[in-house]
Automatic annotation (TrEMBL):
The keyword Oxidoreductase does not apply. Coiled coil: none annotated. GO terms for molecular function: glycerophosphodiester phosphodiesterase activity. This is glycerophosphodiester phosphodiesterase. PANTHER family: GLYCEROPHOSPHODIESTER PHOSPHODIESTERASE GDPD5-RELATED (PTHR43620:SF7), GLYCEROPHOSPHORYL DIESTER PHOSPHODIESTERASE (PTHR43620). Keywords: Glycerol metabolism, Hydrolase, Signal. InterPro entries: GP_PDE_dom (IPR030395), PLC-like_Pdiesterase_TIM-brl (IPR017946). Residues 81-409 form the GP-PDE domain.
């Protein structure tokens, strides 16, 4: 065969392969790109939603909202600062607080990415949702040299008690922490061995990517998020130490812990306007307002004080005082913001939502797509939908819930455990997240 024929056949083969490659839309939808094309500039980061938003839309009953959401199926799509990637934003499939979850949340378009900040025994700051969850979110119990350092070492289940362990970031050093693998949060209460204890992932999540999640320090998280295309923002949460880690911890005070978290961003030259610092602990918020006003003005006051009917009323009445102390953003779970009409059929804003709006607090809520199928939420007493569960029976209603939160409650941002679910909605309605310059 002549060389010219070979060249022609090679060109044809290359064209055939290229034509068969998946087509990926850029953020402006001005043209299509094949997977062999050179990467775009940072402003044109590919957003990949996967099937979930479309599954939810297809499951909706006919309505103007469904029609609107269907009209957006081909974009344009872009990174959304309305969406805060909860524990990274990819936790339906990836271990929380890991590089993999963060990258998944970023790829799905979350404009703000979270690191829950805990401290280690040598005062290193690391990304972990609780100081004392290593036994259920990492493989620490499979590392004998570290497992023996746990606050409560593993004990197997017996005839009278379930399996037990309690392992805290403060039990180990930062170097030891970074040797761990992140895993899906869960445990097997019937376990006889540490290996058996590793199981227990909720059935509505997946263990497909539960291999060895890459854990992060606060500093490596800053490096990762700052390197991502699309100019992402940060939302670090200062975790309140549990009773098993009394403060001060070996002389390390809560006040210094709160300073160290924000100083990590200052030392890296991160503009305060990009940092949405969070805490459930009111003194942390008030300290930031006083000592770090550029960060404090947009600090996110996390509120879980209203989980019972009596405490809920107290939490509503406290909102005016919180605003009076200089707080601009309140962040409750979204069940606090919603209630039902007397016939249990229509979702409407709650007294909490109305009061927050009345006193001038912006709302960033949590956490969307952190639950199983909506058909089961009433029977299981699922937390996030607890205030509206009688009205729910199919997954398409997720977008009806989100619609009320956005267009009636007026939330300024939403944490999501699967970022694409909310990013799609935010893109369709042109939603923008909170803006630093709006806060004084």
């Amino acid at each position: 065969m002549s060389s010219s024929i070979v060249n022609l056949l090679s060109l044809a083969l290359v064209a055939s392969i290229a034509n068969g490659l998946p087509q990926i839309l850029d953020s402006s939808l001005s043209k299509r790109h094949t997977a062999v094309e050179a990467p775009l500039a940072k402003s044109n980061y590919y957003i990949s939603f996967g099937p979930r938003p479309f599954y939810i839309i297809n499951n909706m009953t006919a309505s103007p909202l469904k029609t609107k959401l269907q009209s957006c199926e081909n974009g344009p799509f872009e990174i959304s600062t309305f969406v805060f990637g909860h524990r990274g934003g990819g936790t339906l499939q990836f271990p929380e607080e890991t590089v993999e979850s963060t990258m998944a949340g970023a790829r799905m378009g979350a404009g703000v990415l979270e690191c829950d900040v805990s401290f280690t025994g040598d005062r290193g700051l690391v990304c972990r949702h609780s100081l004392c969850d290593l036994h259920t979110t990492t493989n620490i119990l499979l590392k004998p040299e570290l497992a023996k350092k746990c606050t409560i070492p593993f004990t197997p289940a017996n005839g009278t008690a379930p399996a037990n362990a309690l392992c805290c970031t403060s039990d180990i050093t930062t170097a030891e922490y970074t040797s761990l693998c992140g895993k899906q949060d869960g445990f097997n209460a019937s376990a006889k061995t540490p290996a058996d204890y590793q199981y227990g992932t909720p059935t509505w999540r997946t263990e497909l990517y539960d291999t060895c999640g890459t854990v992060m320090t606060l500093d490596s998280y800053i490096t990762l998020v700052d390197s991502l295309p699309g100019y992402r923002n940060f939302t670090p949460e200062l975790k309140t130490p549990p009773a098993q880690v009394p403060m001060p911890f070996k002389g390390y005070t809560q006040e210094q812990y709160a300073r160290d978290m924000l100083n990590a961003f200052i030392n890296r030259g991160i503009d305060p306007s990009r940092v949405w610092a969070q805490s459930f602990n009111p003194p942390d918020i008030y300290q930031w307002l006083k000592e770090f006003p550029a960060f404090g003005k947009q600090a996110v006051f996390l509120d879980e004080s209203g989980d019972t009917p009596s405490t809920y009323n107290v939490s509503v009445s406290a909102l005016a005082g919180i605003k009076a102390k200089g707080v601009n953003i309140i962040s409750p779970p979204f069940n606090y913001l919603l209630t039902l009409t007397p016939d249990n059929k229509t979702i409407i804003p709650s007294p909490y939502a109305l009061e927050a709006k009345r006193v001038g607090l912006d709302i960033v809520s949590w956490s969307f797509d952190r639950s199983g199928p909506l058909a089961k939420v009433l029977a299981t007493g699922e937390y996030y939908y607890s205030s509206i569960a009688p009205a729910l029976s199919y997954d398409g209603q997720m977008y009806n819930v989100l619609d009320v939160l956005i267009n009636q409650v007026g939330v300024k941002g939403m944490f999501s455990d699967w970022a694409s679910t909310v990013v799609y909605f935010a893109n369709c309605f042109g939603l923008k997240g909170p803006v630093s310059s709006n806060y004084k």
